[in-house]
Amino acid sequence: MALVRERRQINLRLPLPDKSQRRPSFPLPLPPSSHSSTTTTTSAVTVTTTTTSSSSSFSSLSLSDFTKLTVLGSGSGGTVYKVTHKQNGGVYALKLISSDPNPTHLRQLCREKEILRRMISSDSPYIVRCHRVFEKSDGDLAILMEHMDGGTLDHTLKKEGTFSEPLLANVAYQILNGLKYLHSHKIVHRDIKPSNLLVNSKWEVKISDFGVGRIMGRTLDPCNSYVGTCAYMSPERFDPDTYGGNYNGYAADIWSLGLTLMELYLGYFPFLLPGQRPDWAALMCAICFGDPPTLPEGRGSEDFRSFVSCCLQKEAAQRWSAAQLLSHPFISKSR
């Protein structure tokens, strides 16, 4: 008798753009009082400001103290402006996030808000500094952050070309320290990619954009929801039925890091050929059922190839942690 096996159905649905892609309308509130947590009510809006002692120099600021200079970026996570302080001339980045009644968007907004409040007190030089979070009564947010004048690593790759191994080792060292800090505070980023990694003129690289991040309750809390940028998702994120029962949620960030470093080195996304346009269904199948990408024959040193392999293990439990990768020869030899 022939044995018939039931075919397992894989969810290949792709998220569609939602209303949050519009640029938000954000009325400027009145200046808050000097208390560390204040609610100011006007006829138009109620604004809640959040501060800590580490950001006391920003406690008396309001959005009306800043002038927009230009748009730095825009997407489903909101619009980021380059702004300047009217009195002291300081330059910052201001991210405006419009609320949306969609339950999924609301959950992501609440997560980002909670993570950003933690980041206000962050002392890590590898995380983009959050100076202030302004919250409207209707749920809209304005986030005042440090400005990284070099833009994203994605922009740097397109402008300056591929990264050398010594430069990549320095970049990886900084990203790993940022991930180590986040993971030690039970925060999973879930969207590590070149466009979410910022650089300044000193070549300080910092992690940004916590729009799909998550605060983990326990070390092995499941973290397999369908958020983040599809191309950089780990196999267990796409196919939790196969991989999701035995993985550490932080390992997904390490997979994304491996793909990011390969892309910066090669100049194209590792699962695609140079110039190839992505077919998302085929890409997801390659991530879930194919072998992890490797550097082309003859490209990359033995240490770099080993480092990438430690990041891109199909089984999440076999991937090295951020702390372990910091001791890898590819990193340690460059320090």
Tally the structural domains.
Answer: 2
CATH superfamily placement of the largest domain? Transferase(Phosphotransferase) domain 1
Output the structural class.
Answer: alpha+beta
CATH architecture designation of the largest domain? Orthogonal Bundle
Whole-angstrom Rg: 21 Å
Most strands sheet: 7 strands, antiparallel
Distance between the termini: 63 Å
Bin the helical content: 25-40%
Portion in beta strands: 15-25%
CATH topology of the largest domain: Transferase(Phosphotransferase), domain 1
Count of helical stretches = 10
- Can you list the strand order of the major beta sheet? 1-2-6-7-5-4-3
Total DSSP E strands: 11
Mean pLDDT: 77
Instruction: Catalogue the unreliable spans.
Output: 1-54, 212-228
- By CATH reckoning, the class of the largest domain would read Mainly Alpha
Q: What string gives the helices and strands in order?
A: EEEEEHEEHHEEEEHHHHHHH
Principal-axes shape call: globular
Enzyme class: transferase
GO molecular function, one term: ATP binding
Region (Disordered): 1-43
Domain Protein kinase: 66-331
Fold blueprint:
Layout (H helix, E strand, L loop, with lengths): L36 E5 L4 E5 L15 E10 L2 E8 L5 E7 L5 H18 L9 E7 L4 E6 L6 H8 L4 H20 L2 E2 L8 E3 L5 E3 L6 E2 L19 H4 L1 H4 L7 H16 L13 H10 L12 H10 L10 H4 L3 H4 L3
Antiparallel strand pairs: 1-2, 2-6, 3-4, 4-5, 5-7, 6-7, 8-11, 9-10
